[in-house]
Write a structure and sequence with these properties.
It is a single chain. By secondary structure, the protein is α+β, with helices and mostly antiparallel strands. The chain contains 10 helices and 12 strands. The protein is elongated, with a radius of gyration of 29 Å.
Length: 388
């Protein structure tokens, strides 16, 4: 258990670290708070929001003595601005994220737990004033008396130490670092009719849990059509990421993503070659031991493998050798293969098969894939024109 001397020493170090941090961070925080405040409540004027931001930064070094801040919060609440509580809490998270990055960049010791407590104190102090105000009392506030009478909380102190250990918090910190360092080594990946669409992306803005990227128009339209976003792991992220799409702005080539989560694997990156969907329905027959085993349709094909969709399941297993017959370019072809996986859907099965074509069929498949790539890319470009 720490003694008072140790606690006082930790507090002193925090004060010194905060002073250095706020000296550099103050203009950035004022701009962030002002932008966030006016965005969520356009009735608040920018100069008023900035004054509140200045008061907040002053209060971070002393949460017990902030009459200027309280006065402005009271004013905002009296003018019925319910978004103030949200803006203040999010701005505190913003302070926490940037202070950690600042400490790491400048090799400054920072007690994150103590800083969280400091932010708690500030928000809780604001909660006391806000809830006292909700009692419609203009008298001098007796904090001890108010604590037991609050009918509702205008401010919810939902900052938690747990967030510091969560993957989501780690991801947002990494994105913030990439933004500060103007890093561009992150790649998006989408599939459109089997064709992988991948391009470089740059972080341009972070707001709460949303990250806005700048990327190629082709990537944007692929994301829109697939209705999901994938980011390939790099030197910053240990795993691939999947995210939900918030907004796509084709005029600026900006895509805003949220709800980032790690995915352990990305099958599209494990393929040996490009796998395309056929341009028209192609029936395919699967034989085993010279007997017809099942009928289906060709789902996709590459130079190394293909998959079959069928509603038939008669006990075929991975590892078994098969013979395939199908038409790809108006002529029937036969290929030997081995079943590598069987995927079960609600009313059908997909048989994934590694193929061993002869030289002639291999060349034919390669030419077909090249042709389909051009057709699919052209189709993607046509879709893009709808949003240009």
């Amino acid at each position: 258990m720490k003694t008072n001397a140790f606690l006082n020493n930790d507090t002193q170090k925090l004060e010194e670290s905060l002073a250095l941090f706020l000296k550099e961070f103050k203009p950035l925080f004022e701009d962030f708070f002002t932008s966030l405040c006016t965005k969520f409540d356009p009735t608040i004027e920018a100069h008023s929001a900035k004054e509140m931001a200045i008061a907040l930064t002053q209060s971070l070094l002393n949460t017990q003595d902030a009459p200027l801040l309280y006065e402005k919060i009271f004013l905002a609440l009296r003018q019925d601005h319910p978004s103030i509580d949200f803006v203040i809490q999010k701005s505190m998270v913003y302070v926490l994220e940037h202070s950690v990055i600042f400490a790491q960049t400048h090799s400054i010791p920072l007690n994150v737990e103590l800083l969280c407590e400091r932010l708690y104190q500030l928000i809780d102090s604001l909660a006391l004033h806000a809830n006292a105000l909700s009692l419609q009392s203009d008298a001098v506030i007796d904090y001890t008396d108010v604590m037991g009478k609050m009918p509702s909380k205008a401010f919810q102190s939902d900052l938690s130490n747990d967030v510091l250990l969560s993957p989501r918090y780690e991801m947002m910190n990494i994105f913030q670092q990439m933004l500060v360092e103007n890093q561009k080594n992150i790649y998006c990946l989408n599939l459109y009719e089997g064709i992988p669409i991948s391009s470089e992306a740059t972080v341009v803005e972070i707001l709460d849990a949303n990250v806005t990227f700048q990327m190629s128009p082709l990537q944007e339209i692929a994301m829109l059509l697939e209705n999901q976003a994938f980011l390939v792991k790099n030197s910053y992220f240990p795993n691939h990421l999947k995210a939900d799409i918030v907004h796509i702005a084709f005029k600026t080539n900006h895509v805003t993503l949220t709800n980032f989560r790690y995915v352990q694997s990305m099958p599209a990156l494990q393929r040996e070659g490009v796998r395309v969907y056929p341009s028209k329905t192609s029936n395919i027959a699967l034989y085993q031991s010279d007997a017809l085993y099942l009928n289906g349709i060709l789902h996709d094909i590459s130079t190394k493998g293909l998959s079959i969709l069928s509603n038939e399941k008669e006990g075929l297993h991975a590892g078994e050798d098969v013979l395939l017959e199908f038409e790809l370019q108006d002529e029937k072809d036969s290929i030997n293969g081995k079943v590598v996986n069987i995927i079960s859907y609600t009313n059908s099965f997909r048989y994934c098969i590694h193929i061993v074509p002869n030289e002639g069929i291999s060349r034919m498949i390669a030419n077909y894939i090249e042709q389909r790539e051009k057709e699919i890319t052209a189709k993607l470009q046509m879709e893009l024109q709808k949003y240009a």
